[in-house]
Amino acid sequence: MAIGAPLGWLGANPIEFITRSTGTWTIVALVATLAITPLRRALNWPWLVRLRRTAGLITFFYAFLHFMTWLWLDRFFDWNDIVKDIAKRPFITVGFAAFVLLIPLAITSNNASIKKLGAATWQRLHSAVYFIAILASLHFIWLARRNPNEPYVYAAIFALLLGARIYWKYRKSE
Ligand code: HEM
Fold first, then answer.
1. Domain that holds residue 166
2. Which of 31, 40, 102, 153 has the lowest tally of Cβ within 10 angstroms?
3. Into how many domains does the chain fold?
């Protein structure tokens, strides 16, 4: 994108192109992150767990690029405008909340943090990712969209991935 923008490869509105593609990559990476545990259990592939941290950090990386595109290229670091946009447009409010919640998860995605917090607290903190998935779905659903079905496809995948966890938890406690 950094090469394509000055060369005119990103169409008539390169900022919109960058915002949308970084947003799409963020949600795809979030789906991949949340799919790892159900896939590991369903396919009995324990090695998949090794990819979970990387997938989570890739999600944060794209969310950061997506957020910075909005902050810099869309709002030009105009702090009044930024606060107004977060307060007034519900899809921005929930997107911003999702991004803010991703920050502590990214910071604590290392073995030293698991040790410092204790496994149970760390796990509780990282279960915020389910709430992040709900906020990300609302963010996408509330956008004015050319293809109104696409956000519902992601929301359905998230519902399935969260549902699988609830099912397994319920079965374990039976
Ligand atoms: C976990 C966090 C987030 C996810 C998963 C996410 C995901 C997405 C997705 C999938 C799109 C639509 C892409 C498309 O058109 O195909 C999008 C668009 C957009 N997002 Fe996000 N986003 C997140 C956070 C944020 C944040 C923090 C902001 C700014 C505060 C933001 C601002 C926008 C804007 C301005 C658009 C384009 C709206 C339009 O085209 O009219 N997003 N995002």
1. 4-173
2. 153
3. 1
